[in-house]
């Protein structure tokens, strides 16, 4: 099921969001209950590409905002698998797209 919000965030999930508890002994690829981590993809469409440190550095604020909004439980790699990329855009078509895939 896909959900779209008015801020351009697309949420994809097959069931409801999992109840997540933090554990230091769980494997990095799964959450405590054994389900895969939440996948977060941040795609920046720019007319002029950013250098990699600016691109990835800006993603921290996006992750923090997703936690504050309650869309992800935590921005730790223990809970999410986040990728950041950029693609070429023309003129006014510049934007940032955030895709969240729940297990």
Account of the protein in words:
The protein has 103 residues and is of the alpha/beta class. It has one domain. Helices cover 17% and strands 31% of the residues. It contains 1 helix and 5 strands, in the order βββαββ. The chain has one helix at 52-68, and strands at residues 2-4, 9-12, 38-46, 80-88, 95-101. The chain has a 5-stranded mixed sheet, covered by helices on one side. A hairpin with a 4-residue loop joins strand 1 (2-4) and strand 2. The model is unreliable at 1-7 and 12-27 (pLDDT under 50).
Contiguous low-pLDDT stretches (5 residues minimum) are: 1-7, 12-27
SS-based class: alpha/beta
How large is the share of residues in beta strands?
25-35%
Tally of contiguous helical segments: 1
Task: Name the shape in a single word.
Answer: elongated
Total domain modules: 1
The residue fraction in helices comes out at: 10-25%
Average pLDDT figure: 78
What Rg is obtained from the alpha carbons, in whole angstroms?
A: 15 Å
Order of helices and strands: EEEHEE
Strand order across the largest sheet = 1-2-5-3-4
- β-strand number: 5
- Biggest sheet record: 5 strands, mixed
Termini Cα gap: 12 Å
Question: What's a concise summary of this model?
Answer:
This protein is 17% helix and 31% strand. It has 103 residues and is of the alpha/beta class. The chain has one domain.
Annotate the secondary structure layout.
Layout: E1 2-4, E2 9-12, E3 38-46, H1 52-68, E4 80-88, E5 95-101
Parallel strand pairs: 2-5, 3-4
Antiparallel strand pairs: 1-2, 3-5
């Amino acid at each position: 099921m896909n959900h779209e919000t008015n801020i351009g965030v697309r949420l994809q999930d097959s069931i409801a969001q999992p109840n997540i508890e933090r554990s230091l002994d769980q494997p990095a690829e799964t959450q405590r209950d054994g389900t895969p981590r939440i996948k977060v993809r941040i795609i920046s469409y720019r007319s002029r590409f950013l250098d990699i440190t600016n691109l990835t550095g800006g993603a921290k604020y996006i992750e923090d905002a997703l936690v504050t909004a309650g869309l992800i439980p935590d921005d730790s790699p223990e809970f999410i698998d986040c990728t950041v990329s950029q693609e070429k855009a023309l003129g006014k078509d510049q934007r940032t797209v955030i895709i969240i895939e729940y297990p």
